[in-house]
Amino acid sequence: MDKYAAIVLAAGAGKRMNSSVRKQYMELAGKPVLYYSLKAFEESPVSEIILVVGAGEIEYCRQEIAEKYNFTKIKIIVEGGKERYHSVYEGLKAVKNADYVLIHDGARPFVDKDIIHRSIEAAKLYGACVTGMTVKDTIKIVDSNGFAEATPDRSHLWQIQTPQTFFYPLIYEAYQKMIAAGDSNVTDDAMVLERATGQAVKVIEGSYRNVKITTPEDLLVAEAFLTKK
Fold first, then answer.
1. Is the per-residue pLDDT at 30 higher than 80?
2. Using CA atoms, how far apart are residues 23 and 41, in angstroms rounded to an integer?
3. Sign for the pseudo-dihedral over CA of 39, 186, 160, 211
4. Which of 64, 89, 97, 129 is 20 to 30 A (C-alpha) from 195?
5. How far is the C-alpha of 86 from the C-alpha of 203, rounded, in Å?
6. Chain center to CA of 198
7. pTM, whole model, 2 decimals?
8. Structural domains in the chain?
């Protein structure tokens, strides 16, 4: 029977929040933002959660997150690195026993059991999948002088979200190759796989509610979602 692990990233500095408190620890309806995504994975088919945190935050997260909220599936807490891809790599190295791994931003509190289930099923079929939604706005490609030079067909444009889910040996090997090559110009996990192996990545629908808390306005939106729910 296949086993699944989740790597939840909580090492970001959150500079755009203009706050001394990191965004993943900010309060959302009385609980840290990070709590909500961890709860979703705790209640999912995932058997182990690897929580990746900032420097010096392991003990804090152990006491104030894992133990306080009784997240029994958090098997290990590790420190991340300077950039997101460093943090993902630390998480991948810490995976103990999984065939598939879901990589998720801890600042996306509204991942749910349906998204997790569909991500796992797609990864089992295709080896690699990411969640996302079609863009709502018209997108312009702008040149270095600030002039619009192209308008891509909106029907082919997707906003990519997390989780991004992979056959574990495949994504781990891709990250090893990227780290060894020193290729740091990557913005998501699918991009690492595409560059390192040429593997096609399936894109499946996530949710417009699956927002990432990046700015103070995002926190207001998240609070509205919880209030409505």
1. yes
2. 19
3. positive
4. 97
5. 24
6. 21
7. 0.94
8. 4-228 (3.90.550.10)
